Amino acid sequence: MKREFLENLKIGDQALGKDLIDTIMAENGRDIESAKKPFADYEAIKEQLKTAQDGLKAFEGVDVKDLQDKIKTLNTQLSTKDKEWQDKLNGMAFDGKIKEAITAAKGRNAKAISALLDVEKLKKSTNQDADIKDALEALKKDNAYLFEDDSTPPPYAGGTGRSTPPSKYDAETAKIMAAAGLDPEKD
Q1: pLDDT at position 161
Q2: Is the pLDDT of residue 56 over 70?
Q3: Residue 10 neighbours by CB under 8 Å, 6+ apart
Q4: Where do the record's region annotations for Disordered lie (predicted)?
Q5: Is 70 exceeded by the pLDDT of residue 165?
Q6: Tens digits of per-residue pLDDT, 81-121?
Q7: Sign of CA dihedral 164, 165, 171, 177
Q8: Phi/psi at 2 (nearest 5 deg)?
Q9: Is residue 173 part of a domain?
Q10: Do both 126 and 84 map to the same domain?
Q11: How far apart are CA 114 and CA 91, in angstroms?
Q12: Whole-angstrom distance, CA of residue 101 vs CA of residue 96
């Protein structure tokens, strides 16, 4: 309703008063606002609808079955890679156990000793530490040369003689000095 309409409206011969027009306009304004209230979110809802429709357009022509197959394939590949990495980590941990056990058993050459062990059998073992130790003990009995000797060397027996007089330098340093033309026995 427009104010001009009320100003031009006459009851009898008289025009409506300004106070009466203001009161009618205020009441009309409240009615209009209460009528607009349910539609206040119209623009926001319209924008959401447009966004949803645009999103759906992006999926037009997409084969859902094909996407599901790709997802399954990728999940399978991912689980395969996870298993491969876990196997590698387990293998590295096992190799570390073997090397530690060989070192503890005073092995001279870890590669040579590992080559003589049944590694696959030891990997599948439920009690790896004990089985590795047992395998190394058995190998030590058969191939003692691969391990340091646990027995103490016999004590020096005086009077057995020496082939060379004692030197204040070790043998390697004496050889280097001799090669350089220096006499290791002189100061």
Answers
A1: 59
A2: yes
A3: 16
A4: 146-170
A5: no
A6: 999 999 999 889 989 999 999 988 888 888 898 888 888 89
A7: negative
A8: -105, 150
A9: no
A10: yes
A11: 14
A12: 9
Q: Please tell me whether residues 104 and 138 are part of one structural domain.
A: yes
pTM (2 d.p.): 0.46
**Hey, what amino acid is at 3?**
R
Residue 138: give the domain boundaries: 78-146
Which residue is associated with the tokens 């057995």? Answer: 160
Does the pLDDT at position 70 exceed 80? yes
For all residues of the chain together, what is the average pLDDT? Answer: 84
Looking at the fold, whether 82 and 142 belong to one and the same domain comes out as yes
Query: Which residue, chain included where needed, has tokens 């025009």?
Result: 15
| Cα separation, 151 vs 143, whole angstroms | 16
Residue with tokens 């040579």: 112
Shared domain check, 31 and 85: no
Tell me: pLDDT of 187 over 70: no
Residue 163 is assigned to a structural domain of this protein: no
Q: Is residue 38 part of a domain?
A: yes
Q: How many Å apart are CA 76 and CA 69, to the nearest integer?
A: 11
Tell whether 141 and 84 lie within a shared domain. Answer: yes
Number of domains in the chain: 2
